[in-house]
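User: Hello! My lab partner asked me to get a predicted holo structure for this protein. The small molecule is guanosine-5'-triphosphate, SMILES included with the sequence. Please write out the structure tokens.
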Amino acid sequence: MAGFFERLKEGLRKTRDSIADGLDSVFGDYSEVDDDFFEELEEVLVMSDMGIATSDRILSELREKIHERHIKDPAECRKLLIDTIADQMTPDEHAYDFEDEKSVVLVIGVNGVGKTTSIGKLAINLKNEGKDVLLCAGDTFRAAAIEQLQVWADRGGIDMISQNEGSDPASVVFDAAIAFKKRNKDILICDTAGRLHNKKNLMDELSKIGRILDRELPGIHKEVLLVLDGTTGQNALSQAREFLNATQATGIILTKMDGTAKGGIAVAIASELSIPVKYIGVGEHAEDFHRFDAREYVTALFADN
Ligand SMILES: Nc1nc2c(ncn2[C@@H]2O[C@H](COP(=O)(O)OP(=O)(O)OP(=O)(O)O)[C@@H](O)[C@H]2O)c(=O)[nH]1
Ligand SMILES: [Mg+2]
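Assistant: Hello! Below are the structure tokens for the protein in complex with guanosine-5'-triphosphate.
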């Protein structure tokens, strides 16, 4: 855990740097908690790409707490801010049940957000925890997508089901479902081609894949993880909303949090959406992928260390 916290902090360095002056000024220079203090704090939160709606909600709660507890010292507010934000990002206590059950995980999202890489990292982490994982190369569309997943499978010593490029993804998923049963695997993780929520034929293809999984693997826990690219900031939030209208996503994977100055977007996404952020990626290696822990995240972002 400590190892990942360091990676997370390193990953969030760009965001921390971009808001450091603002935070120092808010928590250091102000001699009392007044309107100017809140105004400047709001600027800092919005600058981290937390969005106005989320920032406003957090600040009004912070105001209330400060008032109730008669806090006068801006430095004390820093811890209270972290608590307030973390509390907003309510975790789902059943979010990771599927890891310990027989389950199938379908990974979806637009092009290039980090689906295949996240699958590779997740598969290796689950395998390291003793799970018997099966990968399904369900992106038959993009050139080299199958080979890309194969590299992860080889790296982790993990079985993978694939067909040739250009074949029907639903047919690959069918093969994988059969293999999953026959080989008595624990977790099946299916890659899919990148798609936009408004491309009807591509969304229909996803529904077809979903139907095949329901039919072939009845009673197996189904997880649909939507991958969002953190570097796109507020756009990732609107993308998530569109996908939630069009799919049965059950969780979010937030990637590339190491390459962005918009680290606050994780807070917006985790507090605005009806499904939880389950994992985050802060780099390209398996160790750079972890369950999302709101308190750990906010501490890495705002704590004074
Ligand atoms: N720095 C960083 N790069 C990442 C992370 N996750 C993915 N990437 C990189 O993002 C690029 C795209 O990743 P892919 O996994 O191929 O994305 P995809 O969604 O599968 O893409 P398509 O299959 O083309 O739709 C690759 O260069 C990855 O190495 C991350 O957490 N941090
Ligand atoms: Mg891919």
